[in-house]
Amino acid sequence: MDKKRSDFFQNSLTAVLPLILSVVLSSALYSVYSINLFSVWTLGIILVTAVMFLFCRFIDKHHFIGGAIFVVVLMFALYWFMVLIAGNDYGQTFQQWFLTGADKVQTKTSYLLALMVSFVPFFAVTVYYFSMILYRMSFLTLISLIPCAVYVKVLSDIDNVYVALIALLNVAILMSSVRQKRENGRMVVGKGASMMSAAVFTFVLLIISAAIPKEENARYYDRFEELFMDTSNNNRLFSDYTYFSEFSGGADSFRGFSNRRMYTVYGPQDPYFKRQTFDYYDFENDRWYADDSYSEPYYTDYEWTAQAGKLSLAQLQKAIKAADGYESGFSAKYGMSGLSDYEQITDDYISVTIQPENFGAVYYIAPVRAVSVTPVGQSEQIYVTRSGVFRNREQPHAAGMPYTVTFYDEYYTRYRWFALGGADIDDEKCGEMLNELYTVLMQNRDDLADTAEAFLQVYNDAMDYKSIYRENDLLIPDRVRELAQQITAGLTYDWEKASALQNYFIQNNYAYDLNYVAPDPSVEYFLFDSKRGSCSDYAAAFVLMARSVGLTARYAEGYSPDVTSRDSVFAISDSCSHAYPEVYIQNMGWAVFEPTVPSGYNELESDTAQGGVNFKVDYNLVFVLCVIAAIVFIIALIVIICAPAISERLFMSRLEKASAGDSAVMVYMRLSGRICAKLIPEHESLTPYEFAEALEKLTGCDISKAVFILEKCSYGGSQADDSDKQTVTAAYSEAFAAVKEYKKNERKMLHEKRFLRNRT
């Protein structure tokens, strides 16, 4: 009884210890991403690990079938892993999230699920194999160091609980293996001692690693940032973007950005968020630089809010309608009849909350038609520049301080305004109309005069801005000027010209390519030669062409959020940095245009022309292929599993219908051929009685009566009767069951021999 109890205990340890080690390794890895020791995720880890262990046991017993099922499971796991990491809901890829750790990023549910379908099965399968199939202490040690390596990478102290458990479990598995070998008489002198020494060394090493605190600014983290986050200076994000820049960085400034989150925006829309504008183009160095006067405070926040609150297009429409009431034919005089006759447009406010991530700046990012910026829970003096940028006077605002931005809905109202003819007017007529509108409304003491005055102020500021770069525009190359004139030929109004310039790039096979470095960085080379570049190339070309045909335009840099979650949360990362043009549109104000061709829009044609390959993952296609492969594997498995039973059923059906004499022949041929061909390879050279003797030695089954009936019918000239057929059928059934049991025992013995050999 003691022997049985000891064997049961030993076998339990052999199975349970690797299971616990696998669970601890997965939990240790998960803890890097803010998962506690005891959580729902831990329960999931335990469940998945247990299932994988049972699955590995099944594969070990049923090699072919288990291997086929394993391939199917692996394909589905790969598909779901790709699906989970493909959803870039957080402005950060899975690789960057995994390599950064919980100290730098927030917990991502989809990415944690990706770990569940990748690392947890990996730990389970490898630990199972190297502990229960082919014991290798060195491999177990290497696997156990994976979570520790992740801890080192993220500059975090290793949790002593996990370190102790991992080390102790390795020692326990080693002790269990050594004891089992000793009891089986397969102990190799000196091997166990060396393994024990390795385990102790690993234990001590991990304890020391856990006890020594990590330096937060360790050199290897800077190296990690450089290699994996694609930024050579860890402080770049928070130094370059703290203050206004004198010069734009040009195309090069948009290459090499990381996905480090800079802002999180909570709200219903993701507009263009402006950081800074630039006014003059340096043709010698091919970059923009800012006019100081347009970066200095112009309005206080309160003054601007009062001013911008009147810049509603819906209010301007009301003002024009009111002027028609006071002075008949006012709208028709300036071509605004469409506005006057239309019922009423809407121009709604939208509010979003912007959360800077651990840094402050002298500016507050905001859309072009922003009305106000309000710090949350803070009182700060905010100013607005002549270019519409919200800023502090000198010092950056508090790091990480959230603020709420209120702005007009840009898109719907803008295109409705165009459709109604609200922008069908030139600069001169626009100034004249706004002046007369203000005069008429003031004379009639209409409160809408404030709206006319506000739009008139924006108009005057835009005309002043247009005058400051007049000399700079004279340097625009003739080819650029001629191209712009060709694009806008026959068009009358500024919004039509701006739209034509915007559409030109996408209609003429331009490509967005951050990796392309032009031999000549000039706008002229981009427009006529390469037709490839970054957003800054497109924005610069647009602004210069726009100015060459009389439009009031400026170059802006900011962010274009390109990722949205289901909860209206927009992540703005460093890679969301974007350059785009702003154009003054008569009777409306400054508006954003987008000349940059979407990434990949013309890439297929461009890459084909250059002999390149455009590769994109089609996850739907991957899913279809996985389903087809799974169906094929399942059908094959069903055939493999069911084929013997189906064959046996068909044979018995034929046997029932056969005559008594034929049944003896059928039984012998099936036993000597299909059933026992591999057990008795020499069956073809044996007589029926010799075959029966060989079969009896292997299985203990006697089929001599069936052989006698076979000899009687085949060579004796006798006729078999129904009792003979029953004897033959019974002999076959007994022989079939005996052979099946023999094969089962043979597989079991072979497995035990291999198991003992591998553990030795």
Break the fold down into its secondary structure elements and pairings.
Elements: H1 2-31, H2 40-61, H3 63-86, H4 94-100, H5 109-133, H6 137-153, H7 160-183, H8 191-211, H9 219-228, H10 236-239, E1 261-266, E2 273-278, E3 280-282, E4 287-289, E5 297-300, H11 301-308, H12 313-326, H13 330-333, H14 337-341, E6 349-356, E7 363-364, E8 370-375, E9 383-385, E10 390-391, E11 403-408, H15 411-419, H16 427-443, H17 449-468, H18 470-473, H19 478-488, H20 494-507, E12 511-512, H21 523-530, E13 532-533, H22 535-548, E14 553-559, E15 569-573, E16 577-585, E17 589-592, H23 603-609, H24 619-657, H25 660-675, H26 688-699, H27 704-714, H28 722-759
Question: What does this entry look like structurally?
Answer:
This protein is α+β, with helices and mostly antiparallel strands and 760 residues long. The chain has 3 domains: 2-225, no CATH class; 251-609, no CATH class; 658-759, no CATH class. The protein is 57% helix and 10% strand. The chain contains 28 helices and 17 strands. The strands form 5 sheets. The protein has a 5-stranded antiparallel beta sheet. A 4-stranded antiparallel beta sheet has the order 2-14-16-17. Helix 1 packs antiparallel against helix 7 and helix 6 (137-153) packs antiparallel against helix 7. The longest helix is centred in the C-terminal third of the chain and has 39 residues, at 619-657. The protein is elongated and about 130 Å long. Residues 182-193, 212-237 and 603-619 have low confidence and may be disordered.
